[in-house]
Amino acid sequence: MSDASLAAPPVKASPFHNLEVLWVRHWTDQLFSFALKRPEDFRFRSGEFVMIGLPGEDGGKPVLRAYSIASPFWAEELEFFSIKVADGPLTSRLQKIQPGDSVLMGKKPTGTLVLDAVTGGERLWLIGTGTGLAPWLSVARDPETYSRFKQVIVCHTVRNVADLAYRDFFTHEIHDDPLIGDEAKAQLTYYPTVTRERFETPGRITDRIKSGDVFADLQLPIGFSPNSDRVMLCGAMAMIKETGELLETYGLKEGSNAEPGDYVLERAFVG
Ligand SMILES: Cc1cc2nc3c(=O)[nH]c(=O)nc-3n(C[C@H](O)[C@H](O)[C@H](O)COP(=O)(O)OP(=O)(O)OC[C@H]3O[C@@H](n4cnc5c(N)ncnc54)[C@H](O)[C@@H]3O)c2cc1C
Ligand SMILES: NC(=O)c1ccc[n+]([C@@H]2O[C@H](COP(=O)([O-])OP(=O)(O)OC[C@H]3O[C@@H](n4cnc5c(N)ncnc54)[C@H](OP(=O)(O)O)[C@@H]3O)[C@@H](O)[C@H]2O)c1
């Protein structure tokens, strides 16, 4: 028998980390957040997404879905903001995780909602619907965001007031962040809108852009300018499509990692 036939077959590295759940927070019966222990060798850029999952039931294939990382690149833990779909193959089970459980995470983060994909400007608009807020939790905690842009505006549109997860975070807690608290206080504006309940800034963000209300509320010149405005979009596909088309009418051009531009988008879910 040759040496080669005695050698153990090469061990194929798993494409997933198996990570401990550190905490879970339920916002509503539709939304929750959780954090996973960060592997020491895991690097990502603020705004990227990664595959998250659970082992298949009865030894079947793992169930994996794309998730924006809600933590900034420097964070010790990896936070995620998730929908609960009652009959969703992943989230019907994922919503039941507890601290100490394990969750699978892919090793290759990727995505276009990153500072590298937008060119310089004065104002960065981070526009999200529903869980499309997740990447802004990351980008808004990255110091580079504040050195690149004088003003950062986080727009979050949801159905009900209770769906405004992270409202306290954007209005108060972020100001105490030891790394970017002072910058956030001076440069970050949070602009929530609610579509199916009474609220001080009611309606879809797209409608408030078209009516000019958002610009009036924020005391900004009406409309977007390719000279000063840069935009990131995440959430419902219809919102992304509509806003992207609107931005093009103002002369903004879509960017990518290969060719940075005035606005970038990611479809956080199909719908
Ligand atoms: C690039 C990318 C990033 C994503 N980031 C996130 C994230 O940070 N947080 C998150 O919760 N989801 C995110 N998603 C969606 C996620 O991948 C899954 O679809 C979601 O976790 C539901 O999985 P599921 O298997 O339970 O149901 P699925 O079979 O995947 O979805 C069932 C249906 O539920 C609806 N749905 C799915 N996800 C959402 C959602 N997030 N909001 C509203 N409706 C939804 C859609 O109508 C979909 O057809 C992202 C998707 C992509 C492509
Ligand atoms: N309270 C609830 O019952 C509740 C709450 C949250 C989620 N859910 C469930 O979870 C699923 C996902 O819901 P979701 O609320 O996260 O996502 P969603 O249905 O995409 O809605 C999120 C927000 O995006 C807005 N929106 C949708 N299309 C838009 C567009 N073209 N332009 C601008 N804004 C747009 C919605 O406004 P509109 O309201 O005008 O559509 C809503 O305020 C749904 O299937 C639902 O069953 C239910």
From TrEMBL:
UniProt keyword list: FAD, Flavoprotein, NADP, Nucleotide-binding, Oxidoreductase
UniProt domain FAD-binding FR-type: residue ranges: 14-116
Gene Ontology molecular function terms on file: ferredoxin-NADP+ reductase activity; nucleotide binding
Keyword Flavoprotein in record: yes
Broad enzyme group: oxidoreductase
Named cofactor requirement(s): FAD
EC number: 1.18.1.2
GO biological process: cellular response to oxidative stress; heme catabolic process
Reactions it catalyzes: 2 reduced [2Fe-2S]-[ferredoxin] + NADP(+) + H(+) = 2 oxidized [2Fe-2S]-[ferredoxin] + NADPH
Assigned protein family: Belongs to the ferredoxin--NADP reductase type 1 family.
Protein name listed in UniProt: ferredoxin--NADP(+) reductase
Organism in which the protein naturally occurs: Brevundimonas bullata
